[in-house]
Model the fold of this input.
Amino acid sequence: MNTRRLATTGVAIVAALSLGLSGCGTKTDADTPAGNGGANPAPATSSAPADASAELSAAALKLNEQSVRMKLKSSVIDGDGVMDPATKTGDMTMKMGAQGTFRVLMLGDDAYLKITGVTGMPKKWLHMDATKLGRSGNLNLMPEGDPGGAKQMIDSVVDVKRTGEGKFAGTLDYTRTKSEDKAIQALGEKAKAVPFTARVDDQGRLVEFAIDTSVLHESLGMMTTTYSDFGAPVSVKKPAASDTQEAPEELIKAMGS
Done:
């Protein structure tokens, strides 16, 4: 096994996930389902910041309450997957161009990673203890106490205002929630002022969260995460033992960086 190459690949995944699955996702396709109405629609000029913050926070926290489908797309990552916070199960596939395609399965505290499309990578599923992947749990799609990642998202918000019916805009500071993340540290002051927009549906659920990551690097552009299929059944099957091997420590360290 080429553990050095695996570790390098791990760093690439972490960088993408740090800006993706924790509320800084990727741009959605035009046909991705999204909500149109807000729970408390009002013009931006009449919305007090505190009200907008409370409404967006409540919408995001609903991600911790029921199963959901997530769609991700950007210049660096294109993904689709489902998660069920109640059972801590999830299945996410991420396409990262020349870096290959990554499928991540979550079953409680067990994470399974399979890499395809890259020469020299293991053919089997790589098993990892998700609780050991660093404090932020970059590969842990559903961290303990915040299975949908909503709290981390909310804690990153510096300011927010309502801009229309079910629509919001504001600024994120990723150093608030990922101060020890090396990918975030490398961005310096840029990580403290990242513009975002969000949409909430007529049931008060967050259905879109878009970030203008061009402020981090001009090649990144817009990155959006969309949420749909709320409450749909999620079934994740554990890989067969014969098709599983333990991930090397070098990869685990890279994932937790």
